[in-house]
């Protein structure tokens, strides 16, 4: 796989990974909030006199141990998110540089819509039809995807020649 295609694929994958990480952070924050507002109750024995129990006592409180573990996990995930977002920014710059190096304006727009704006091929076709309303043959989902695939195949062939 050519380096350029790897950059584009890695960029798309990294965006999805960051979305997932944000969801996990949000879920953890809501769990911590729920735990902080909850009170845990348990009953414990007061001791024994021989084989007989002296009675039980009901105790209640906030689950501090669980909350602190979740807060530690939350801090680690936030640090990971900052690190991944920095890496994503680098990949975005590399992806934009590569896309801007494509000679054909039409292909460049398709790549920007698909990779940078994160649109589906159907949405790419709609945007292309909006950008070029007087085009005789309208853009379709398959048309855009095939142009992308042909361009990538062409690059792979050019690299094999070298």
How would you portray this structure in words?
- By secondary structure, this protein is mainly α.
- It has two domains: 1-91; 102-162.
- Helices cover 71% and strands 10% of the residues.
- The strands form two sheets. It has a two-stranded antiparallel sheet.
- β2 (48-49) and β3 (52-53) form a beta hairpin.
- α1 (3-36) packs antiparallel against α2 (64-100), α2 packs antiparallel against α3 (105-116) and α4 (121-131) crosses α5.
- The protein is elongated and about 95 Å long.
- The relative contact order is 0.11.
Class by alpha and beta content: mainly alpha
Estimate the global geometry from the Cα principal axes.
elongated
Low-confidence stretches: none
Major beta-sheet overview: 2 strands, antiparallel
Strand order of the largest sheet: 1-4
Quantity of strands, as a count: 4
Q: Helical percent range?
A: over 70%
Instruction: Summarize the helix and strand pattern as letters.
Output: HEEEEHHHH
If you average the pLDDT, what whole number results? Answer: 88
Between the first and last Cα atoms, what is the distance in angstroms?
14 Å
- Rg (C-alpha, Å): 28 Å
The DSSP helix count reads: 5
């Amino acid at each position: 796989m050519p380096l350029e295609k790897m950059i584009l694929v890695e960029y798309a994958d990294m965006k999805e990974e960051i979305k997932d990480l944000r969801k996990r952070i949000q879920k953890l924050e809501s769990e911590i909030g729920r735990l902080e507002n909850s009170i845990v109750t348990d009953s414990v024995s007061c001791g024994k006199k021989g084989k007989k129990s002296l009675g039980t006592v009901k105790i209640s409180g906030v689950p501090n141990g669980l909350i602190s573990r979740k807060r530690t996990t939350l801090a680690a995930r936030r640090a990971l998110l900052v690190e991944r977002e920095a890496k994503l920014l680098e990949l975005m710059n590399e992806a934009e540089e590569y896309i801007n190096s494509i000679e054909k304006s039409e292909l460049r727009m398709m790549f920007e819509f698909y990779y940078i704006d994160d649109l589906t091929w159907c949405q790419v076709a709609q945007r292309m039809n909006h950008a070029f309303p007087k085009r005789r043959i309208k853009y379709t989902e398959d048309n855009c995807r095939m142009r992308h695939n042909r361009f990538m195949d062409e690059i792979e062939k050019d690299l094999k020649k070298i």
